[in-house]
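Recap from last week: sequence in, structure out.
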Amino acid sequence: MMESDEVERPGGGGLSHRRAIVCLFAIWLCLVLSQLSPSFDMNPDSGRYVALAQSIAAGRGYTLSGRFSRRYPPLFPVILSAVTSPDRHDFRPEKLLVMLTGLGAMIASYWLLSQRYQGRTLLTLAVLVAVSPAFLSHCVLLRSDMPFFFFTAVFLAATNHFWRARKPSWVMAPVLAVALGAAALTRSAGMVFYVTGLAWLARLRLWRRDLRRCMVFGAVIIFIAFPPAMGWMAWVNSHREGGTISYREWIQSGVLRGESPVSIKGLSVLVSRESRTLPTQVSNAARTVISLGGGTTGQLWALILAPIGLLGLARRMRRPDPSDYSFCGYSVMVLLWPWPQGVRLLSLIHISEPTRPLYISYAVFCLK
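Predicted structure tokens:
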């Protein structure tokens, strides 16, 4: 069990707070709907997601041009297939579905942030998350960013709730496990949360303090969250013949000079490659996480705000939540992810989305 560390108690303005949340939702809805159009996103990932969804809807299975798709985890195309049509050229139904996951991500982020903050601080954080330019733009893009953000935020919030509640909230255990499994089946990057969850569970003090809660948490991770990811990896390995290139094979051939990503040579190539650009990556990651633009102004704000967020994280780690472990693990993964350098900036913009609410909250925690 973890004690609450609320920064601010709500005063008598509860009604005003609720009205402000309603106004924020209305503003977010107007901003997102203003970007909604029937046209297709001219993006390779969007094209493949839509093609996979149409293939599923037409009964051709999980295929691209007649070949089994082994690169993209299947959950987002499966979700899209519920509203897509092979003969329709109006993509607003698909974009509305993505927008709903964006709304869910916003609500889940509010739930996550409300576990630490209340009153005006919570409202400020909610505004910063909801009107983030990157968040708004991705709410209507036919990519897996918003569903992944939604499942990740639910996992983080449910996990924190599971551990922070004075009395065990057993219903949160299957919720967090299902959300974790869904995140891993939406983007390969979600696999890192299995590692951070087990790292949190490796703390011996937790087992001495609450053995039953530790056993339940470990059980739902292993028996509910882990099997879907294992099933996807088994499917990828069993469909090499007649299938597309997998993500692991793409990284191995396009980034690691043909070396295996789990070999000593592959690791040395990755470390050499990343060490040359690490300072730029840190600056880019900070700028994209807090939704800053490019150029000198963006770099300046990144230099100012990034250390503040890191100091807030350092303070938080004195009494960490599971979400703090997840933030650290995910951030390291983002910085070391072997993207081809030509697409690294674009990748950081959308892959850092799930970390944005936490990073902003660390900066606020440091300033307070």
